[in-house]
Amino acid sequence: MIKVGLYFKKSYCDNRDYINSIIAALEKNLHDYSIVRAAEDLDGLDVLIVFGGDGTILNIASECGRRGVKIIGINYGHIGFLAEFEPEKLDTAIHMICSGNYALQERSMLKIAYDDKEYLALNDLVIQRCTSGNEFSNTINLRADIDGSVVDNYTADGLIVSTPTGSTAYSLAAGGSILTPDINAFIMTPICAHSLHSRPVVYSDKSTLTLTRTDKRGAINIVVDGKSVDCACDLGPIVVTKSDYKVSFITSFEDNFFNKLLIKLNIWSK
After folding, report:
1. 23, 33, 42, 158: least surrounded by Cβ within 10 Å?
2. What domains does the chain contain, in order, with CATH numbers?
3. Which of the following is catalytic: 14, 41, 43, 54?
């Protein structure tokens, strides 16, 4: 029997009426489940049902990837691009899980390493200027090297390095290209570069990207999947590679990436 975890959007965690209504719906077909509140609660699970939006999924995705726990998302957020189903389709999602009649889509992750620290990102790494307090800086200067070759020296508000999954998020808003989930590449997108030639760069996910700060004006923020993990003036080179871990999403066999773009992001008129 499969072991299923339930992970809720933070604002719903203490809403017992809401959680009880979800559990009541689940218990028609699903009996072996547990509520996940921390990463260690994922141990031993086969599937995690995430009730929330993209931010909720990103909060737990890398930990699922480390443990091989499959994710299925029920959208209770705004866009819910990573979520497979809307709330009214919960019964369909449960039937798929119980029957095993579903497709799996594996998503690559970034491994980010610097100064003896390491993080995983399903969406993106953002390196950006500090905008408050004594560490305020107007721009930051970064040199980007791919496999030892200099790509560019950026004077900008920051840089975004994203996976294909993250290419439809902040990178897209900053002018980056959309990468389909099956492409073996990452994209580096400058944020408000002070240059006429600095443009997004798509590169192989087999390559090593090294980002080195070339100025010392104020602090820089390191943001991983939307969470600030560091803010410092003096950071060593940031090395970005493809993680050995992947995140597996449960989808229907009819899942269509471009149709989802139309519906979720309204990129083109219907």
Report:
1. 23
2. 4-102+252-265 (3.40.50.10330), 109-244 (2.60.200.30)
3. 54
